[in-house]
Amino acid sequence: MDVAMIVSRRDCSIVTATSQGLMTQSGKVLLLHNGTALPDGPRGHEISQEVCQAAGKCMDEAPDDIALVASGAKGQYFRPSLLIHSLKTLTAGLGTDSQPLEAVLDNAGDVTAYQVALSSGTPGCSLSGVAADGTADSDGLCVIMTDAQAGSAVIEGALAQAKAAIDTENFTFIVMANGMAGSSPCSQETLADGLEQLLKKLGFQNSLKACS
User: Fold this and answer.
1) Which residue of 29, 114, 167, 194 has the smallest Cβ count within 10 Å?
2) How far is residue 5 from each of residues 1, 28, 94, 113, 187, measured CA to CA in Å?
């Protein structure tokens, strides 16, 4: 099992941070493949479009509302047909259990999951995350979700702050905020504090600061 799906009832901000940089999307569906990274350049874009169109047909969602993130070994042949053939089974089995996601993240190393409450500025809102160690040929992977209102710019800034304080080298991060109706807007500082707390609970360490 190497593919998982997270679906929201409303639009989400989805930010992916890899060693190649940031990717920002909005949509209702996160499709996560862990095993083989997408190839760089036009071919990677073509594969992403093909998979998102197929997923859209299975779910009756617009392809633009689906974000595909593929992580894992780089430079290997990527077969989109394998993902596409698993979509019907995947969409039929959607539920609220996080265990399938944890199974997909597992790189044969430690997998940890944790949840923290955001500070008083966003009452009732939380951050939950699942992290898995990397291997010799693929990065570690961390998926974080929040029910607070946070746009992509706030997520990007908060993630940059948290990554400056925590050693996150050789990890891919996906942050998904579904901005539930009625939840309070979340400031960048509040989200950054929450991310830092969560990452420490997931086993990440403080980054080493250079001595002056």
Assistant:
1) 167
2) 12, 11, 8, 17, 27
Any idea where the domains of the chain sit in the sequence? 3-201
Q: H-type helices in the chain, by residue range? A: 42-59, 80-92, 99-105, 152-165, 188-201
pTM over 0.70: yes
Q: Which helix (H) or strand (E) holds 174?
A: strand 171-177
The residue count for the chain: 212
Question: Both tokens of residue 115?
Answer: 């949840």
pLDDT digits (tens, 9 = 90+) for 35-65: 888 888 899 999 999 999 999 998 888 999 9
Average pLDDT of the segment spanning 172-191: 82
